[in-house]
Give the backbone structure.
Amino acid sequence: MEIDKAIRESTDRRLKTKYNNAIYVIKRALALYSIEEVAFSFNGGKDSTVLLHLLRAGYFLYKGEQSCSNEDLKDLPIRTIYFESPSAFPDINSFTYDIASTYGVQMDIIRLDFKSGLEGLLKTKPIRAIFLGVRIGDPTAVGQEQFCPSSPGWPSFMRVNPILDWSYRDVWAFILTCKVQYCRLYDQGYTSIGSIYDTVPNALLCISDSSSSKDTFRPAYMLSDGRLERAGRAKKFSPSVCGNFSAVSNGLDSVELRKNSMLTASVIAVGDEILFGTIEDQLGPSLCKKLHSIGWSVSQVTVVRNDVDSVAEEVERQKSTNDMVFIYGGIGPLHSDVTLSGVAKAFGVRLAPDEEFEEYLRHLIGDQCTGDRNEMAQLPEGITELLHHENLPVPLMKCQNVIILTATNVTELDMQWECLIELTRSGGLLVMMEPYISKCLTTQLSEVEIAQPLSKHCLEFPDLYIGCYRKSRYGPLIISFKGKDQARIELGIEALYKKFHPGIFSEVN
């Protein structure tokens, strides 16, 4: 069998592991169900193409084990379903029909939506299990296992997902190693193919040529970061998760809007060592200053135990009341490193292997990474975005409005923050607001003498943060004014002067 032979002769150890695992799933399904009870949903894409050839190899190997026959496989007897859509690319349709003819595929053409088509098919055919080319990272993959019953409200069948844990890189490694035919759209820069209305070539593969007015693209297998395979899917406009700007600005221009709008963030530190007093948390205060420097307000800084439930409860509470949550500590391979598990639980998803992240870890820790899978590469499934930057040895992680930092000291935090800001300028990761500015006064007045006038003053200037503190019990009282408008701060200070005798306050440089 040419597929099995090509894989066995390959030197790609990881591809062999993925292949063997997928073949095991296929043979297991064929042992559980008769050939009349299984079907294969084919859509002409790269993942379906891989699964087609895995099924050919798996069926050949399974029959060989059953009958000890060494005859090669000519036709694939597994019923194949193709949902033909008027919005499909013509190249996808023609490729599908060519494949059916080449490999003797018994194909049912269905011209209904997926759910309605399945309902009709399962009423007339004894199908109990369907092979699907779903991979982790696909929108429909969240919560699925290799064997997974259909969702409530759908026709009853077993979803079989042999390539669930395959990455973009694994898919193309298989196609190129086995030298199998694939849809020619992938040679034109398409990396993830949907309908003609929502799919364009991936701009990351565009070849700049000033002498030509027509864009050209490198083939899909040259995309270096598989996490960006869906970058060619057209997206409807949606505001940034942290951008609560209305399309109607009530007459304010963009500068005024940026000054008067407020976005809030919260900071979560994970670590028993901080709670025991073994170490002092220096990252929290530093992160607050950095957030204020881009105009964000910090609602709170909390420290939680190295406990999955504690992390999950805090993340769930903070992500719903803040525009962005920053969390650090508890990242790594130790038993106490529970942050990723806690974040996953807060979003109601599982941890699942991420092959792209694993590649980064292998480059970073080399031979220290043993086995076929690095457990550190388990990330919250379906919601994790890797934040790549050339100065980061390992990408940062963003789960919707939760950013996971890996810094362990202020120096590392400074570097990661600079990378976040650069990513913001190029890709809108965070909304850059007018920074907070501050001015401080000192006085020898006691708290009792200043309390009532200052309380009234805060009501007169609700747009300013006015606070009081002492650096020591017998030192001067420091009054701080913080805001985004220098003129308002000066006005607030001048108004406070008028409430007291001259010389009561001194400005601090």
About this structure: The longest helix spans residues 46-67. The radius of gyration is 29 Å.
